[in-house]
Amino acid sequence: MSNVHLGLLGEIMIRKGIRHVVVSPGSRNAPAIIRFNRISGLKLHAIVDERSAAYYALGMALVTGETVAILCTSGTAVLNNAPAIAEAYYQQIPLLVITDDRPVEWIDQGDRQTIRQSGIFANYIRKSFLLFPLEDDPQQTGYFVRLTAEAIDRTRFPVAGPVHLNVPLKEPLYDIEFHHLFKDIRIPSLAPVVNEVSAEAMETLVSIWNGCSSKLVLVGQLPVGHGLTDRLRQLASDKSVVVMFESTSNMNNESFIGCIDTIIEGMNPASSFRPELLLTIGGAIVSKKIKTLFRQMKPCHHWHVNPDIEAFHMDTYHALTYTLPVQPEKFLEQLVQSAIAGSDDFAERWKQRVIERQLRHSQFLTTLPFSDFKAYELIFNRLPAKGMLFLGNSTPVRYGQLFNNLNGYPVQSNRGTSGIDGCVSTAAGAAMLSADPVIVITGDIGFFYDSNALWNAALPSNLKIILMNNGGGNIFRVIPGPDRFKELEPFIEATHQLKGEDLARGFGLTYTKAFTEAELIDALETFFNENSRAALLEIFTPNKLSAQVLKDYFNYIKS
To answer: Model's pTM, two decimal places?
Structure first.
């Protein structure tokens, strides 16, 4: 590809609605950086570490709902994009991944910084495209335009996700044409369509729905502003229907049941709480307890709504009877039009259990010593009036499941693949394009693992990082098994004595710390009122006590 066509690529990106490009430095991608930076309408964001950069782009796409481009140089830099691309694939986030490369004739020929880049993300990409060197040929140019337009469209349709453009560049790299205009090019557009379940199939489904005396709708991770709440509220008005949601579903209503782990702890799979029909909507489910419970309950029917044709027949609960490859809002619209209210008191039984468990939850909170659990209670009760809450993996997102509402905040989390490696970077990317505060709560292992997220001269001042430092991967003291072995501390929990203070000062963040409940209450007020630059609040909690308090909580809840 001659460098003049980098301008054509940028022009197509603009016309297809791409506004933001996250770039990392390099030689092979320098011509694209220079060319893109001089195209009106494209805004470049420089993030040095390619792994962190890809997560930044993920966070930006989460906030805007638009396709965000990533641009990196050749070689191992490309592989560093992979974790965020996998996350975007499973969470259905639109990313255009542009990797500059050597010409194909130089692959495997001992040239520097060269690996096999074409198709490198094959297992977790919507589609891969290999662009090609162009000459001054209208037919080749037209093909280039169609190929690039398709690549960008595939980041959005039929479902959102990452798409890879591998771009071989010949030398001389820096012979860049700035004056070529592309006013006359025609770029094909994609007309969005809304599919629905056929009338015949819908008649069968409605017959099954109306024939079941107990129905439960489980809602997993959904983007902010998904528009499903009203339809689900209509379903929940039926006393034979229960709607359960996770904190990452971005929905909350008094008609629905949250805090899943608290409510179902100790539940008998053969009890009257077993639904005949399970309807699942949305992405990943955080709660391992609900997965285990439904696998034991074995509903007679399990319908999963998923428009992604690459994820057909995802049988999470080993009870799948129907996959509905449509957008959930369309299916719910069809369902509520024909559903008939049942007579069973299924919802009332669940409601009584919720009241009982919420009372015990409140009682337990009054006994909390200073620990992870107490720190989360104080944080969630003192969140500012508005903002976005980003819950890191592994324990933060699980503690978020134990508290209802979370002050009405939009909640984001990297739950597509549930990795700890880019939580702060994703939140930082979201903060760059958000007018409100973005509060990320992360464990210590995740924070130090992703510390290059702070290596950004333009780190947004509305980014607020809460670091729960209990000296290691405390989740392994909670889940059954690892704490019985001597290898726990050095190898599994990865016990450490690191502190975030030096990192905060080195990268220019406002730093606050707390070791006690009283210190945390004071620190939160200072922390949330800091608006001049990004801030880090480090909370030191006892690891063994924190793990025991959480175990005691669930024992108390079910006793």
So the answer is: 0.94
